[in-house]
Amino acid sequence: MEHSILIVEDDATLASNIQTYLERKHYEALVCSSAEEALAMLGTHRPDVLLTDRSLPGMSGLELIARVRTLDPQIKPIVMTGYGNVEDAVAAMKAGSYHYLTKPVVLAELKLLIDKALEAQRLEHALSFYQAREARDAGLDALIGSSPAMLAMKATVRQLLEAESRMTDADLPVVLIQGETGTGKELVARALHFDGSRRNGPFVEVNCASIPAHLLEAELFGHERGAFTDAKERRVGLVEAADGGTLFLDEIGEIELSLQAKLLKLLEDRSIRRLGAVKERRVNLRIVAATNCNLERMVQQGKFRRDLFFRLRIIEIRVPPLRARGDDVIALAEHYLALHGKRYGKPGLAFSAQARELLQRYSWPGNVRELRNMLEQTALLAPGNLVGPAQLALCPELMEGGEARPLAIRDCEPVLPEEGLNLPEVERDLVLRTLDRTDWNVTKSARLLGLTRDMLRYRIEKLGLARPERRH
Questions:
Q1: Who wins on pLDDT, 344 or 100?
Q2: Which of 51, 125, 419, 453 has the most CB atoms within 10 Å of its CB?
Q3: What gap in Å lies between CA 337 and CA 351, rounded to an integer?
């Protein structure tokens, strides 16, 4: 029997009929004749659904529901009443009942209602699980790094959270997170939410660059039915969905000027008005914004409102680029290599000394996002446990200045044995590693080796090299 139903009914015949019916439907059904007896049973047994009469000897059914909701909010109460008026229904809902039934009870209707209550309970459990998992992976501990730049940023976040915990009101300051693309601004926003006072509320993320400008206003503020051509029904906006929690506005520099004025009103008054509505609605939320744009320059160019800019940067947090984080590169690389290795069934992956050096010397124009995605390919295609520099699919053309650096001998760094080296073999290995790194793009490989395209083609022919799928 999968689910348990506790029946609290002083009419023995009705209680027995309901119990027999539910047991035939493969439920575990227990019967109590009073609220006091039910509370005593709850000390050792927790049902999924509580089915209780409204009028009981001693404590009433509504009082029982209130006590049960305090003991275990997961239990779904259903009230049976012999009156069936609106006042009874309202009283039952206020007491915390999931639903109510009018006597005489229709057993088929009762089963349908129990099934709905169990489904609602299942969805609540799933939501609770995912919220807990999201919170576990989204606090300050999720920000990997011990470089001075990261420690300073973490200290700022921690200081802000400590100050907010001592606030006497719920009007938390707006936070502006600035940093290059891929540095982890979203992780900082999540840390502010899940380690802060609003951790039990929703975290709603809006990427302002991914929603077309003409739709962004409706997405944020919602709309009434008939507000525009396709508005066939009322819709709650993302701002209202974040009520009680945090609204994270990512890429806020992409918002058009016309919408910036409405966003400023939200920041100032904590109120919104749906499209097509007359009445304003108050919202209680915390706003965190992020951008990779130079907002100061945009203000000077007239592309961003000056008043909105100063309203956003009450608290400013700058996320350092990966190239400024020193040894954090290796710590992050090992973290993602292990993560992707586990995902693709390749535990035990490790970097060679040459690969570590290359990871530290690379400037990471795509920051942590580039590192994470590159290492997924590395883990997927790794032929063995040791990852060398040739298996790191870097993008030197995107480095500062837009030009690739010639490949230094340190990228391969051969160890000179006592018996000496075979120079043609070293040349062959170096050319082959470079071609593998660029997926046999001759132009890119020639640039990395400091050769012309024709010189590299000559060496490919001289050394008898061919792409892996054509190599014999």
A1: 344
A2: 51
A3: 9
Q: How far apart are CA 350 and CA 337, in angstroms?
A: 8
What are residue 53's DSSP bridge partners? 80
C-beta neighbour count of 140 within 10 angstroms: 16
Confidence of residue 255 (pLDDT cuts 50, 70, 90): very high
Order of strands across the sheet with 4-8?
A: 28-32, 4-8, 49-53, 76-81, 99-102
pLDDT band at residue 96 under the 50/70/90 scheme? confident
**Average pLDDT of the residues in 338-354:** 92
Q: Residue 143 and residue 151: Cα distance in Å, rounded? A: 10
The label of the residue with tokens 């999201």 reads: 134
* Radius of gyration over every alpha carbon of the chain, rounded to an integer in angstroms: 32
| 397-414 pLDDT per residue, tens | 665 544 444 444 444 444
Q: How many residues does the chain have?
A: 472
Per the omega criterion (within 30 degrees of 0), is the bond before 104 cis?
yes
Q: Are strands 175-178 and 286-291 parallel, antiparallel or unpaired?
A: parallel
Long-range contacts of 14-22 (CB under 8 A, 24+ apart): 14/103, 14/105, 17/107, 18/51, 18/105, 18/107, 18/110, 21/107, 21/110, 21/111, 22/111, 22/114
Nearest to 53 by CA among 99, 10, 107, 13: 10
From first CA to last CA, the distance across the chain in angstroms is 63
Longest Cα separation, the chain: 101
Q: pTM of this prediction?
A: 0.62
Amino acid identity at 53:
D
